[in-house]
Amino acid sequence: IRKQTLPACEGLKNVSYEELELKAEILFYDGIKTSDIQETLIKTALSLIDVDKPDWIYVAGRLRLYDLYHSIKRNYGKPGSGDVYKKITLMDYIEFNKHLLSDWTNKYSKEEIEYLNSKIISERDNLLNFLAIESLIKRSLLKDKGKVLELPQHMYMSISMFLFQNEDKSKRLKLVEKLYETASKLWLVFATPILSNARKKDGGTISCLLTSIPDDLAGMFDKFKEIAIGSKIGSGWGIDISRIRALSSWIKNYPGVAGGLIPWMKILNDISIAVDQLGSRPGAFAVYAPTWHCDIYHFLETRNLSGEDRRLCRDLFLAVIADDVFLEREGNNEDYTLFDPYDTPELSELYGEEFKKKYEEYEKEFESHPEKFNPNTRKIK
Asked: Which of the listed residues 39, 166, 183, 199 has the most CB atoms within 10 Å of its CB?
């Protein structure tokens, strides 16, 4: 226990290994596991976090790191005491995990890898607090069949090597070294897809993708497939649904049968749960609807805490596209008209003065021939 608590508290303010051991109140019994002792110490350190003693979160982080070091040594078949980064070098890490890493590993010579290994500073693991190291273990560190196979500093170095793999060899090592320095000191935080996927086989590194759902059945399900694949490789989505016809719109020659935005939002909601970015985090979908859409109120109610479950989409992020006409009329407390994009397809394509001109044309047409429009077309404040 002392081998764990003493270094965990070293150099931190308002914490002590004596207090940690005393408050842990570990009850020993025959056959107690060291992992159970470790969990007790971690929970105790977390319980001691206070406004006046914030460094206990670093104590808990170090204890979790020691736990990680122990399991990494075991997984590599190199148990025993001593600096884990000396037991498992960058070359060991690359060779052991070659089946999980993309071909960037073949672009660096043995000498280059050994040079970069000499630049790794293991003490920088101590910059990670408990929440950071827990997040890395759950979401980012390389795993195979549930076993963690990557140390934090190897992660930072391998990402740097991956990102600069195609640079001119005369300057590549210096670039890798500089990026490693910046990232390992936490001066730079990589975007989640890079942190989780860069260096791995088939890993996507794009943070955000944008798309627009068309208003036809085949096109919709093509988009849903595209969105699912994007989420699988770790990307979040911004999804425009302004083209989807409103509730009670026409389908072929049948009036009043369209289900509106909500059924399609429900599918997106379920895709975000089902395709959860390889288990690293839930899918992240921001869905955009325009203020002039007939279903805008239904759209805004999908994040309500109560209501019919089939009308709620609590896992989507909502965003509203506010056009100039809306903003002007809101400022002047004037009326504003809600339309069905099936009746007004140009509104999804236009912006600025062209949008305003077409929008006002549709308003005049609605006033003179309301029967041509979706029955839900209406003026609002």
From this structure: 199
- The answer to whether 184 touches 123, Cβ cutoff 8 Å, is no
Mean pLDDT, range 324-335, rounded to an integer: 96
Angle of the 110-118 helix axis to the 152-163 helix axis, nearest 10: 130
Q: In what order do the strands lie in the sheet with 208-212?
A: 208-212, 236-240, 285-290, 317-321
348 CB neighbour count, 10 Å cutoff: 19
Tallying the residues shown for the chain, one arrives at 381
55's CB contacts (< 8 A; 6+ apart) are 12, 13, 14, 15
Q: How many CB atoms lie within 10 A of CB 214?
A: 13
Unique residue bearing structure tokens 């749960």: 273
301 within 8 A of 271, measured Cβ to Cβ: no
What is the reported pTM? Answer: 0.80
Mean pLDDT (whole number) for 356-376: 97
How many angstroms separate the CA atoms of 199 and 5, rounded? Answer: 34
